[in-house]
């Protein structure tokens, strides 16, 4: 399986009047523009996905939608609570991916930091320590053998949003 991990684009700042409702933060106009351009880079790289799985947070759903629209695969987008920024569980996500999407050859997961970096660490080394840093709009490609909650993947590449935009 090719597992792609994408961090959401640039989002609004936290609302100081509602600090406990991080899930409603949207992408900024700049974040939407940069994500559309980064999607152009994905298209130039001829990336295709069997599924696009996003966190339930608004900014990740917006990011996933921009990618799905840009690649012409809106019907492939789904949401997983296991990807939530707060309370998301990587072990549950891996079980969900194996159970519900194990037949996928190419899967895009759209999420948050530090969740994604820790997930990458778990899959390439068997440890939750963050081995990489996912900047906003960054895309990582992992080659996965038998998906499990442990060392099962090889890091093929990690591109920043800027590099993706340049590829477009």
Q: What would a concise description of this structure say?
A:
By secondary structure, the chain is an alpha/beta fold.
Average pLDDT over all residues: 94
Strand proportion, as a percent range, falls in 15-25%
User: How widely separated are the two ends?
Assistant: 25 Å
Sequence of secondary-structure elements? EHEHEHEHEEH
Can you walk me through this structure?
Strand 2 (51-54), helix 2 (58-71) and strand 3 (77-79) form a beta-alpha-beta unit. By secondary structure, the chain is α/β, with parallel strands linked by helices. The mean pLDDT is 94. The longest helix has 16 residues, at 29-44. It has helices spanning 29-44, 58-71, 90-101, 115-125, 161-167, and strands at 2-7, 51-54, 77-79, 106-111, 139-144, 153-159. It starts with a strand and ends with a helix. It has a six-stranded mixed beta sheet, sandwiched between helices. The chain contains five helices and six strands; from the N terminus they run E-H-E-H-E-H-E-H-E-E-H.
Give the SSE layout.
Layout: E1 2-7, H1 29-44, E2 51-54, H2 58-71, E3 77-79, H3 90-101, E4 106-111, H4 115-125, E5 139-144, E6 153-159, H5 161-167
Parallel strand pairs: 1-4, 2-3, 2-4
Antiparallel strand pairs: 1-5, 5-6
Helix pairs in contact: 1-2, 1-5
């Amino acid at each position: 399986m090719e597992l792609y991990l994408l961090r959401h684009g640039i989002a609004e700042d936290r609302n100081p009047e509602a600090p406990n409702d991080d899930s409603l933060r949207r992408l900024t106009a700049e974040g939407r523009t940069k994500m559309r351009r980064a999607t152009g880079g994905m298209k130039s790289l001829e990336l295709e996905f069997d599924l696009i799985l996003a966190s339930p947070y608004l900014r990740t759903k917006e990011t996933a939608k921009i990618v799905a629209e840009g690649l012409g695969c809106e019907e492939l987008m789904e949401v997983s609570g296991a990807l939530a920024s707060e309370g998301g569980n990587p072990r549950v996500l891996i079980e969900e991916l194996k159970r519900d999407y194990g037949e996928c050859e190419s899967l895009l997961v759209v999420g948050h930091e530090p969740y994604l970096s820790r997930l990458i660490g778990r899959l390439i080394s068997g440890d939750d320590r963050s081995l990489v840093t996912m900047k906003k709009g960054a895309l990582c490609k992992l080659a996965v053998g038998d998906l499990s909650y442990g060392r099962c993947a090889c890091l093929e590449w990690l591109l920043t949003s800027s590099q993706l935009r340049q590829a477009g």
